[in-house]
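Ticket #4471: complex job returned nothing on first submit. Input attached below:
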Amino acid sequence: MGISEDSFVYALSSNQAWAGYKAHQNPDFFPRLATGQSPEILWLGCSDSRCPETVILGLQPGDVFVHRNIANIISPTDINTSAVIEYAIDQLRVKHVVLCGHSACGGAAAALSDQRIGGVLDTWLTPLKAIRNANKDELMAIRDEKARIVRLAELNVEAGIKVLMANMTIQEAIRDRGLQVHSTLFDIGSGRIRDLGFGTAKGGAKRGSSATNGTDVVRGNHGMLVFRSDGASMHVQ
Ligand SMILES: [Zn+2]
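Support reply: We reran it on our side without changes. The output follows.
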């Protein structure tokens, strides 16, 4: 990879190569993409460069509507998160909301430390620090620092799901059309996403959903994503 000093120049030339490859592979790809979007997944994740949702899901442009912020914190008063949720659910009518934390999250590591970061970051991470404080005994009992960060990331997703499940837009969509809310964690070391089991997946809130046996399938252009009550998996076609 030629990413170094001229990383922007490299990125632009990489884009040219990618666009050429995609158009060659399927001449209809971009013209069709330009006609509009109808993604079935809303992804709420971390800004971390190692967690690009569409890439790690093996999906394509047009498949996932996205909001990412530092440490995937779901704050009910954050107008940015709220606007994305409202648009995705009310206008795009996505079928799945996926909240995804990840291993080695710098935000979780910072929240576990008592160091002041400075600027607006300490304020942003306050909800995560509150989760840390509320679970201090459990977290401090974990000797391995990496495992402690993963555990805080899990607790953060659990807390975020509680906020999502209390959101009126989400509540109405669950009730009226079987919207599913999923809690997941991305393990950077293996590239795998696992289901944490919070949200609608195990809550039986599947009224009106097209799901059968707790399984739901989202088809992309080159693969499909299967959500089950015991986890999610990706199948490449
Ligand atoms: Zn992160």
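The first strand starts at residue 41 and ends at 46. Closing as resolved unless it happens again.
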